[in-house]
From TrEMBL:
Belongs to the eIF-1A family. Seems to be required for maximal rate of protein biosynthesis. Enhances ribosome dissociation into subunits and stabilizes the binding of the initiator Met-tRNA(I) to 40 S ribosomal subunits. One of its GO terms (molecular function) is translation initiation factor activity. It comes from Haloferax marisrubri. This is Translation initiation factor 1A.
Length: 96
């Protein structure tokens, strides 16, 4: 790797055992979004209160979601990646 690549590479937050990568496909309102998860499932995700005012989530953003144990078609958003971080994840092959 060149120095430029090493310099631009950052250590990113990776998913825990119960989290998956997802891409926001649709804004539903009422703090809910539609996401397409890396495991192939389309889910309705909830933006928790601690993120609502601090982090702005838009369509095509890459996020980490935590699917619910008792209802697989729903999830909670646990992290949002910046555009540059999402590009790095794509380059490294973590997401499509």
């Amino acid at each position: 790797m060149s120095d430029d690549e090493n310099e631009s590479r950052r250590d990113l937050r990776m998913p825990n055992d119960d989290e998956v990568f997802a891409v926001v496909t649709n804004m539903l309102g009422a703090n809910r979004i539609r996401v397409r998860c890396a495991d192939g499932v389309e889910r309705t995700a909830r933006i928790p209160g601690r993120m609502q005012k601090r982090i702005w989530i838009r369509e095509d953003d890459v996020v980490l979601v935590e699917p619910w144990d008792w209802q697989d078609e729903k999830a909670d958003v646990s992290w949002r990646y910046e555009k540059s971080e999402a590009d790095q994840l794509r380059r490294e092959g973590h997401i499509q």
